[in-house]
Here is the input.
Amino acid sequence: MTSSPDHWWRDAVIYQVYVRSFADSDGDGVGDLPGITSRLPYLRDLGVDALWVTPFYTSPQKDHGYDVADYQDVDPLFGSLADADALLARAHELGLRVIVDLVPNHTSDEHVWFRAALASAPGSPERARYLFREGRGKDGSEPPNNWESVFGGAAWTRVPDGEWYLHLFDSTQPDLDWRNPEVGDMFEGVLRFWLARGADGFRVDVAHGLFKEESLRDQVITASGKASSGHVNPDHSMVKRELSDEPMWDQPEVHDVYRRWHKVLDEVGADRMAVAEAWTQTPESMAAFVRPDELDQAFNFSWLLTGWSADGFREVITGTLAAVGPVGASPTWVLSNHDVVRHATRYGGGPQGLARARAATLTMLALPGSSYLYQGEELGLEQADVAHELRQDPAWLRRREGIDDPGRDGCRVPIPWSGTQPPFGFGPGKGQPWIPQPADWAALTVEAQTGVECSTLEFYRAALAARRTFAGTAGDEVEIIGEDHDVLTFRRGPVTVVVNCGTAPVQLPAGEVFAASGELPGGVLPPDTAIWLR
Ligand code: GLC
Here is the structure.
């Protein structure tokens, strides 16, 4: 099913909704499902095809929903199952698809299975659903191996009877043992549950993590003394990872899980999809997740890990197409999400950062495949500076020592919709929402930008509308033109894209400009600007 050109996701623009921070219907300062439903017309008018909604399941919210206590219910903070049904129904009415987030690598420590595991003895079937092991050293007081949590510190926590359990993330997120057949059966049930409710697809959290090397051997630490996390390091997410020994990531057995899921999705209908969040070491290992009998897409993080550079962009585009082409999958592109510093800030912040962010977005939107947008980028939001005492990101909290790291709270600040002071129409409440909004966001609200020529919001609307004129028919071929270090030029079907990453203006090539990321004074392409020509 993966390679049919008819599949809706092949050229879809998918908008990521971070549930806590999109829209708050009840005024408690936290976003919720009815809030999302009420704002669906905004997404339709923006011109996206689908939304991916981050986890809204029952959860103690230690990692804001990526710690699931019940996969088949909605956390009261976000609403009810009826609210989820209403969201799905309304989205479908408006012609929008909905991708839900599936978290199969770990549960919350409040999941019934983990509670039962703690209440049971070492060696019991209850413990065998997780990775409990004896410790090393005298009295087993050392962790079973040297693995580190992605969020910092040891990846093991000891329970009162002396055993340790593995958690590649927070200690409240125990890893499941996918070698235990009960685990696979449980998740098949979860897939079927949400498919039956109308979900159009799944975003698979930590898709490369489910299996660990069976021996749970030590990781070989590289000469630089740094273990690779095998995952985004939210603090240094723009830094390329070194290739290293990763017994906890990307094990061959994981692909059997996705072959099974492929069958389940196919059984329900050829229009259901799954996209992997897989931080693999190479484009080729990423492509393995989207072989024709596995998942449909995998996030391609290479752009998000690349700075502002024509050569870098060129390399990302050619590398990605070369990797996914042979397996017949559609490429994906993403510049921002809830785990990384927003791209306007990564590109330097201020007017220049925003100009570059818009140019990168326009460049991405011309490429074959799907683009994933992150809520707020269409408003030109930057990473907010959240005071240390107000931070909630467990990754930052576990790593407090690295105090200058930005953490993930600053890209998760609630969306400013309208008005001149917090919560800027985010909800009916008064004052600041769960993470404070910067006071200067008054100029960035949806209301303030609507109808304003050249605003970032109108730029996104225009770009998405222009994309619709060719995305479905321009084919998958991209012809890179030239090797200029400052200017990237490529052609896709009838469209030529030029992005100026240099410091001097360049002549516009021949053709009609039908989209631009910024102004084109004097008929030249200024630095930090991209255009589409036909
Ligand atoms: C994924 C999510 C991230 C979460 C982690 C653990 O990387 O995107 O937000 O913290 O998985 O579930």
Remarks:
- Residues 13 and 48 are 5 Å apart (CA to CA).
- The first strand starts at residue 13 and ends at 17.
- Confidence is low (pLDDT under 50) at residues 225-241.
- The pocket of alpha-D-glucopyranose is lined by residues 63, 66, 103, 169, 205-206, 277, 338-339 (CB under 6 Å).
